[in-house]
Amino acid sequence: MTNIKNIVLPMKKHCFFSCLIAAALFTGCIKDDGEPYTIYRQIDNNSTLVSSLYGYMYGNAQTDIITKDTFELTFNERNIQDLDVYLGIKSRFYIYDTSHVVQCGYVYSYSDTMPTIKKPNCEVFEQITWNSNNNKDSVFFEGEQHKLKFHTDIHIRSFVVTQNGDTCYSPKAIKHLTSMPSDVWYQRKDAPSLFPAREGIIAATTEKGKTYFYGGRGNINCYSDMWIYDVDKDTWEQLATFQPTDVHPYSGPTERCYGAAFMYYNSHKNDTLMYIIGGEDATGEPTDGNFIYSLKNNRFGNTADHPNNRPYVEKLKKPTTGLVGFSIDAPNNIGTVHVIGMGMMHDEMSSVTAIETQMFTYNVAKDLTTEDGTNYQSWLTFGSLAKEGVLGDKSAIGYYNSVAVKVNKSTVIIGTGVSSDDQNMKRCGRLFYEVKSNKAGEIVCKQLPAPPEDFVTRSNAAAFYLEYNHLGGTYSNFYVGSGVDENGNILNDFWAYDLANGTWSRKRDCSNIVRQGAVGFSILRVDDLVNKGAEPQQRGIFAFGKGYNLDGESTAPTVRNDVWEYLP
Q: Which of 252, 296, 476, 522 could form a disulfide with 271 if both were Cys (CB 3.0 to 4.6 A apart)?
């Protein structure tokens, strides 16, 4: 498209313009709608707009000004909290005769650098206000567009439409990077109807960042199905539903909730195994039936899947529920250590329940096949959290329904939950611990600074860890929230611990859902809302749980199947 820069525009010689219009029509210089009329346009600071209305129309477009660039939490048509990123813009067009203008507006595109109304991938602002009556030679208008993609380049162009249908565009489009929201929750897609709502789901994440989910408890029953969340598609995929008869009866995958799991890579068979340990049935009865799930073969493991061709997984010393599981790289070339422990254990002989203080490691080399399952040593003592902040038996402390979050390959944060310090097993601890391997070849435990006094002690919380860049800064935060307090009140507050500064801060509450027994995990987000180059890539997820909605529904807790994403 050729710009003609040196044309003099006499304001009163209409016949001169009529001849030029005729010449332009004859030569094809006047363009179809979708391009500016360039034959009479001077491209400079006083750009002239020309239309074929009565032979001509002239004026210039003042620079468009962005007036709003922000985000807010709104409620969608389902009365569910959602994230809205929006822009406001205002313009002034100098026009020869404003009485001929019948419409003003803005057209935008994420991909087209010069958007127009009729082009594909171009949209028109939904909210426009304008007034041409106050000034004979100017049209003032402004617009606002909601539900934009955040932290994404957008190209915006103002335009006016005349009585005879001519569209005159601003000669330049504004290129603008939309705002990057922070410290907000917004709702992802609910799990499908085939994935019933539940609490206490058992989850573990592979080294490649894929999280698998097993079991959980509904309002009445527990489940024995296996699912995976596809981050890119924002969808839940059911891998299989299993029954106890699918595997060896000693290791039966009983329908359960509030167990623990870890991932073990079996290099000899090029297969990742998900070890699922402990938990409880729908009545709250703890179980010691442990088993493995083969990710490669999508089945509960048998002798062909077990690292040592063992027909089942060794039991812990007592049935335990509400325990934690994680993996940590040990020093001195020991490799990855898989840890299970704490929780509420049940002594079948005496019918006594108590909170376990010890944690145990799984030793695959000692998990050997035996005929009766009595000759085993695969669970070895790892150690205990201690009030003094060291691993060991002295002043050991344990938690029931606590959180354990992996920070990196060598560090895990554990904390909160019902404390073994309370003989009535009602009071919750407020301490958090960092368990890590150090350069001296030791696994050490450090007590983190206690949260502020207004942090309510709790159990059944959800947590995740995020390390991300945001607007030029790098952050490393452990997040924890929701849960139930010592009096049975369900919570939705949300807290962050800054590992770099050793400080706690309260964040935006966990959406409008109050819940306990949710599952928390982190993801790398690349989807329709964010460019592949956007930041931060890492997000947190809280999903499922048991609770209620703050917006008018009954406060009687019920299981949920909604999924919420936190943008730090």
A: 296
Whole-angstrom Cα Rg for the chain:
32
Domain for residue 47, yes or no? Answer: yes
CA atoms within 13 A on the CB side of 194: 10
Closest CA to 481 of 458, 453, 500: 458
Q: Residue type at 250?
A: Y
| DSSP state for residue 149 in the 8-state scheme | P
Q: Is residue 531 part of a domain?
A: yes
Q: What is the DSSP string of 476-538?
A: EEEEEEEEE-TTS-EEEEEEEEETTTTEEEEES-STTEEEES-EEEEEE--STTS-TT-S--E
553 domain residue, yes or no:
yes
pLDDT at position 143 is: 94
Check residue 134 and give its pLDDT. Answer: 53
Which residues span the domain enclosing 496?
460-568
pLDDT of residue 311: 73
Residue 372, pLDDT score: 53
Q: Please say which residue of 141, 158, 177 terminates a domain.
A: 177
Distance of CA 134 to the CA centre of its chain: 49
CA atoms within 13 A on the CB side of 71: 21
Of 559, 332, 320, the residue nearest 420 (C-alpha): 320
In single-letter form, the type of residue at position 156 comes to I
Q: Does the residue 242 lie in any domain?
A: no
Give 278's Cβ-side CA count (13 Å radius).
29
Query: What pLDDT was estimated at residue 52?
Result: 41
Q: How many CA atoms lie within 13 A of 81 on its CB side?
A: 20
Strands 546-549 and 558-559, how do they pair?
A: antiparallel
**Number of separate domains in the chain:** 2
Q: Measure Cα distances from 567 to 69, 172, 299 in Å.
A: 18, 34, 35
Complete DSSP assignment for 197-210 = --BS-EEEE-TTS-
DSSP structure string for 369-405: --SSS-S---EEEEEEEETTSSSSSTTEE-EES-EEE
Strand stretches in 317-440, DSSP E: 320-321, 324-330, 335-341, 344-347, 352-355, 358-362, 379-386, 396-397, 399-400, 403-408, 411-415, 418-419, 432-437
Residue ranges in the chain modelled with pLDDT below 70: 1-62, 75-82, 95-98, 132-137, 164, 244-253, 332-333, 349-352, 368-376, 387-394, 423-424, 439-441, 525-537, 552-553
Token pair in block for residue 69: 């660039």
Q: Which residues pair with 433 in a beta bridge?
A: 414, 447
In 10 A of CB 50, how many CB atoms? 26
CA distances from 485 to 378, 399, 427 (A): 36, 14, 9
Cα–Cα distance list, 45 to 42, 60, 65, 76, 114 (Å): 9, 9, 15, 43, 18
Q: What angle do CA 314, 319, 325 make, to 5 degrees?
A: 70
The reported pLDDT for the residue numbered 291 is 86
Q: Which of 557, 564, 488 is nearest to 218 (CA)?
A: 557
